[in-house]
Design brief:
Blueprint: H1 2-17, E1 21-33, E2 41-42, E3 45-58, E4 63-76, E5 79-81, E6 84-87, E7 90-104, E8 113-129, E9 143-155, E10 159-168, E11 183-192, H2 193-197
Antiparallel strand pairs: 1-3, 1-11, 2-5, 3-4, 4-7, 5-6, 7-8, 8-9, 9-10, 10-11
Length: 199
């Protein structure tokens, strides 16, 4: 919770101390696969909803930086070994931060089609079995770093739709010799609160 509060303060600080900024809230979801080395396999997982805040800082007429800070709660699919089910489905809560470089193709910031790329940092805050309610937090690495790239489109001045591919760099799980990456995508709807207030 402390990390969430600090991220929100940072986003609001963009709006306070810089002139060319925008900020708001967003809703989204993400889906991912979890390729695992060895005889362990998983169907991957999904986060039906992400909810968070964002801040955007314009650097020049065509580009800027966008920070997304958001919370999501989803389910990792069952983990299988050669002998059958190893672990049933796990409910996982995560706090995420993405720092994205934005480039607007038409060279007008916050208008139209734009490209996105940057790092993603994820903190696993809770992991419990969906059926047995056991604590599986030690099964995961608490912190996971990824790289993201995608695109977005500004709609009706106050809204932005973004689709971002994501690849996890270090191992997502921390269990014996098993290592796992994540390959997935985020789909977000951003609501620009700053543009609504200043209208």
């Amino acid at each position: 919770m402390k990390t969430v509060v600090l991220a929100i303060i940072f986003v609001l600080s963009l709006a306070t101390f810089a002139q060319e900024t925008s900020y708001g809230v967003f809703l989204g979801s993400n889906f991912y696969r979890m390729p695992i080395t060895g005889d362990l396999d998983s169907h991957g997982g999904q986060v039906p909803f992400n909810i968070g805040v964002f801040g955007s800082l314009q650097l020049n007429e065509s580009s800027g930086l966008q920070l997304n800070a958001f919370y999501g709660k989803g389910t990792d699919g069952s983990f299988f070994s050669d002998n059958g089910i190893f672990i049933e489905k796990i409910n996982v809560s995560k706090f995420n931060a993405q720092l994205l470089y934005k480039y607007h193709v038409k060279k007008t910031y916050n208008q139209g089609f734009h490209l996105l790329a940057g790092p993603r940092l994820t903190f696993v805050t809770e992991a419990k079995g969906k059926r047995d309610h056991l604590d599986y937090a030690d099964f995961y690495n608490n912190i996971n770093l990824g790289i993201t790239a995608g695109f977005g489109f500004d709609v009706l001045k106050h809204f932005n739709i973004q689709a971002v591919l994501d690849y996890g760099l270090p191992s997502t799980i921390d269990f014996g010799e098993y290592k796992s990456s994540t390959i997935g995508a985020y789909f977000n709807l951003l609501i620009d609160v700053e543009s609504i207030i200043s209208k």
